Amino acid sequence: MSSIPSSSGSANGHNVHTNGIKSHASSEAGQSSEQQMDGSQSLDYPTNGFVQPPYQNHHNEDIVNHLYHAGFQTGNYADTILHVHQNVYRLHAIILSRSPFLAHLMSTSPQTSAQRAIYVHLEQEPEVTQEGFAIALGYLYSAISLNLIRPDNARAVLAAGCLLGGMDDLCRYAYEACRQSINVETIGAWVQFIDSIPTSDGTTTPDLPKTSIFGLYAQRLRDDVFHFLVDTLPEVLEVHQSPPESSSSGPGGRDVLLQIYARVPFEMFKTAVESPSFRLDPSGSDQARFKFAKEVIEIRKRGIARGAEETVVLAFGGGNYGGSSVHITRKMRKRPLWKVNA
C-alpha cells in the first residue's frame, strides 16, 4: 500500500492549513523548476514588460482599505475586545499580532468565550494619549493612519508606536513631525519634556521613578532640542544683529532668548552656554556668552534658580595661550543655623 505525501506542512505538531492553496512563493518555485528542466524561459524575467499583473497593486489597496474601514473603524467580525483609556475596541487577533506588545497580551490572556478580551493599562505612561494610541492602533490595519498625525499629537503617536512595537515607519514619521514642531513658541514645552525623561545612562531621581517608552527616540529628541537651543534659536531670533533703535514693536530677539534660557534646567543651561557653538555675536566670542550668562543668571535668581547660587566666570589662559572659556557653576545655599541658648 503506497502512501500519498501530504501537501500541507506541520508546525508544533499541527498541520498547517493553507485554505487549499499553495503559497505563492512555492508555486512560482515549482513552475520555475519545471520550466527550466524543459528548457523554457524562467518566470524570473518580465513578461510583456510586466513583472507582476497590472491590477495587483489596485487589488491590494482595496483589501487594505476594506480592512481599515470594515475591520478597524467598524469592527465587523471582531474576535478580540481591547480595553484601554476607558475605550473599547472591537478588533482582530490576526491584525493585532503585528504588534509584539499586543501579541504577548493575547498569548497570556485567558480566552473564556468566543471573543478574547485584553486590557492595556497605561496609568504609568502619560505620554500615550487616547488619540495617539488610536492612531497607532489603526496603523496596524493601514498606513492611512499617517494622515492623522499632526504636530500637536505627534509625540503621543510616537510614544504609542514605541509601546506597541512593530511599526518603525510610523515611529519615524511621528518623530520627524516632532522634530519639525520645535520652534520659538514650543521650545519651552519641549525643554520641560526633555527634563522629565530619564537620561541615556538611566540616572533618575531615586524617590521619583520615571519611565520612558521612547527608546532611542528619547536621546534623539534630547539632541534635537539642545541643537535648537544652541544653534538654531540665536539664528532665528537674529541676536547676531545690532538691536533696533526703537523697541516699540515688542521685545527683541535677545530679550526672547534671555527669557527662554531663564527657564532652562541648569545642566542644559550650563552645557549650552559653555558651548563655543552658542554664538551671540558674529565672531562667536566668549565675552558675548559671558555677558549673556550673567544676564540670564540675574533673571533665574527670581525664578528657576531660587534656593541655589549660580555663577559664571570667564577664565583666561588654560590649555590654549591667550584663549578664554566660559564656566558656569551652581551650589545650593546653606540654611542658616540658629543657636539655641541653654
From TrEMBL:
Matching InterPro entries: BTB/POZ_dom (IPR000210), SKP1/BTB/POZ_sf (IPR011333)
In terms of Gene3D superfamilies, this protein maps to:
Potassium Channel Kv1.1, Chain A (3.30.710.10)
Q: Where is the composition biased (Low complexity)?
A: 1-10, 23-36
Renumbered to this chain, region (Disordered) spans 1-56
Tell me which residues make up the BTB domain.
Answer: 78-142
Composition bias, Polar residues: 11-21
The name of this protein is BTB domain-containing protein
Organism per entry: Collybia nuda
Instruction: Recite the lineage of the species.
Output: Eukaryota, Fungi, Dikarya, Basidiomycota, Agaricomycotina
